[in-house]
Specification:
Strand 5 and strand 6 form a beta hairpin. This protein has one domain: Immunoglobulin-like (Sandwich), CATH 2.60.40. The chain is an alpha+beta fold and 152 residues long. The protein has a 4-stranded antiparallel sheet with strand order 3-4-9-8, with no helix packed on it. It has a 3-stranded antiparallel sheet with strand order 5-6-7.
Length: 152
Amino acid sequence: MTHPVRHSRGGLSAALHELDDLRTRMDQLMHELFPLGGHPELGTAVPWAPLADVVDTEDAYVVEMELPGADKEQITVEVTEGELDIHGEIKEKEHAGVVRRHTRRTGQFDYRTTLPPNSDTEHVSADLTNGLLTVRVPKTETGKAHRVEITG
């Protein structure tokens, strides 16, 4: 028996995008449930996910992530099994006075996204400038979609 195929622009890329959106929404839900970054009964910190844009350019996938106050020594960028993982910690700043309102994120963070098959994971670069982490994942020709001629 055949099943209808759900056509979406981008094929596998669109499906991966939908999964990343779902992961982002789940992260947001966790942060709404535990706004102070931890489970009140367990006393454990729950990593938060920084705000990020993923841009598909002609020759690379570019992740731009907001990490104000982050120190590059406290950030780790890893690529394993087709997944980009960015994690680290933003230390809370010492204040001389009494903090009346605290809304900036501090503590451990974790951001993960699935990379498309044509990602060149051997040549990933990362740059942190003015609180913006830019991770560039070049594209390869391998895994690139191409049209197949029908013969006969």
